[in-house]
UniProtKB/TrEMBL annotation:
<feature type="domain" description="Peptidase M14">
    <location>
        <begin position="1"/>
        <end position="230"/>
    </location>
</feature>
<protein>
    <recommendedName>
        <fullName>Peptidase M14 domain-containing protein</fullName>
    </recommendedName>
</protein>
<dbReference type="GO" id="GO:0004181">
    <property type="term" value="F:metallocarboxypeptidase activity"/>
</dbReference>
<feature type="compositionally biased region" description="Basic and acidic residues">
    <location>
        <begin position="270"/>
        <end position="288"/>
    </location>
</feature>
<dbReference type="GO" id="GO:0006508">
    <property type="term" value="P:proteolysis"/>
</dbReference>
<dbReference type="InterPro" id="IPR050821">
    <property type="entry name" value="Cytosolic_carboxypeptidase"/>
</dbReference>
<feature type="compositionally biased region" description="Polar residues">
    <location>
        <begin position="251"/>
        <end position="266"/>
    </location>
</feature>
<feature type="region of interest" description="Disordered">
    <location>
        <begin position="251"/>
        <end position="288"/>
    </location>
</feature>
<dbReference type="GO" id="GO:0008270">
    <property type="term" value="F:zinc ion binding"/>
</dbReference>
<feature type="active site" description="Proton donor/acceptor">
    <location>
        <position position="193"/>
    </location>
</feature>
<dbReference type="Pfam" id="PF00246">
    <property type="entry name" value="Peptidase_M14"/>
</dbReference>
<comment type="similarity">
    <text>Belongs to the peptidase M14 family.</text>
</comment>
<dbReference type="InterPro" id="IPR000834">
    <property type="entry name" value="Peptidase_M14"/>
</dbReference>
Amino acid sequence: MVYDHLSPEKEKKLVFLTARVHPGESPASFVCQGVIDFLVSQHPVAQILRDHVIFKIVPMLNPDGVYLGNYRCSLMGFDLNRHWQDPSPWAHPTLHAVKQLIVQMSQDPRGSLEFYIDVHAHSTMLNGFMYGNVFENEERVQRQAVFPRLLCQNAPDFSLSNTSFNRDVVKAGTGRRFLGGLLDDTSYCYTLEVSFYSYMTAGSTAPVPYTEETYMKLGRNVARTFLDYYKLNYLVKCKGPTHIQSSEVTFRTSGSSAKGNSIVTDTDTEERSQNIRQTDRLTQTEHA
Ligand SMILES: [Zn+2]
């Protein structure tokens, strides 16, 4: 049994998060910490999310690589993010176990595994951004773009222009690509990348170096974006936006705000998005 605490009469959505498959990408741990801190907090948004969504989080997929101080590989020299298709319990034990769990959860009729997000850090790009999958079905492509768009409204350091969707052959063994093919077409799989060094926001004239705190803030913004998503999709009934907005005290930081259940196009957001689009076009190399 994967989730015995799930009462049969109340179906919950499932969100699966992994981080640190690449051991040198330590910013991913701070982002993941921000997600966890928010979800276990007394923040009203977190309380609502816990009522409707089950979050499964594996904060460190490559602990032996982290222990050894490796940049990309495990103890045995494998880049685990190229072995999702056929992980060995002997050579890739953490990956094997997590894959088994995800497959088991995806087949359980009592819950619906809707999101898989794998957190990485990027060595050449600015800001936070996502990679997603490419599908033939245009409607699915559009649905896949919803979460990054909502996140862009909540996180001033998240860049939609850096966000892209691909199906490169070389990425076939990544978690995002493999699970995108495994899970049904109502599921969404993303790689969440965050810059190793800086981000640009509206109004800034120079890149702002990331800190542990701003990495964790991105994680908190990722977590609360799930409420926006599930309000849009009617899993969570909106009791009035003021309830959520007025509660943005504990974790509120400059530039972020709760946007209720609509895709907001306020001036600040538009301006911010345009500014990011103009400023973060560095050489794009995907390392995920
Ligand atoms: Zn990576």
